[in-house]
Amino acid sequence: MDLTSVLAVTHNSRELSGLPTSDGGTLASGILFRSDALGALTDDGLQALVDLRIGTVIDLRTDGERSRSADRLPADGSVTLVPLSVQGGAMDEMVQKLLPAADGTPLSASQLAEVLDQVPTLEDLYTAILGGSAAQFATLARAVITASGTDRPGVLFHCTAGKDRTGLAAALLLQVAGVPREVIVEDYTQTGENLARGFGEALTGLITAIGVPLTPRLKTLATESPASAIEAALDWIETEHGDAVAYLRSGGLTADEATQLRRVLRGE
User: Fold this and answer.
1) Which CB contacts under 8 angstroms, 24+ apart, belong to 204-208?
2) Taking the model in full, what pTM does it have?
3) Which residues contact 260 (CB under 8 A, 6 or more apart)?
4) What integer is the mean pLDDT of 53-76?
5) Which helix (DSSP H) or strand (DSSP E) does residue 35 occupy?
6) Residue 159 burial (CB count, 10 A)
7) How far apart are CA 222 and CA 212, in angstroms?
């Protein structure tokens, strides 16, 4: 369910509920919410957190991203913020690290070409994030279990655009719940449509602001969500671990927690 007009101002927010599972069940309502960053929440947006019974916000951004644009949350402490940095998804930081040390001289064409050649594809980016972030995603999963025992069981997780790190987190949780692969892919590709409404321009501006031209690969990296990207991530999980449960267990989730997580997500 799209929540962009409810969680004002966000551009890519939705509740993951009512999605079918492979055995005829459905994803529980009021548990999982995904979004872009919450730095621009209005008072109405803050009230929406209350109305939706969201009591936990998990921020997957880096410390640098959070320092530049902190989430706006209720001042009464009714929403618990969990900073959970997943490295690799901050596009402007990634490109900045590839640039040579600044000395005031514009990059030559060959220097720029060398930088752009190092920019990963989304498929490579996602497998790299998964390879280094099992512990963080297991912590997110555990937070969903913990929140389910409270009077505000909703967990909202986000990064900057709600696309890459958030998309991977959603895919993992949906697979644990037994949501079919094609439905997981459909949820992921919805993000590209959401960002095309205008927010994508702000995201690409983060890159061009540091003096790097917007190439097709960078545009895809920053604003698009092709099915091939999440398919590659799901393939990697299957090849390396077998399934999402085994992947999360490699990050520290116990067998009992995995079973409990599945029940929470399915409302059992």
Assistant:
1) 206/91, 206/92, 207/91, 207/92, 207/95
2) 0.92
3) 145
4) 94
5) strand 32-35
6) 26
7) 13
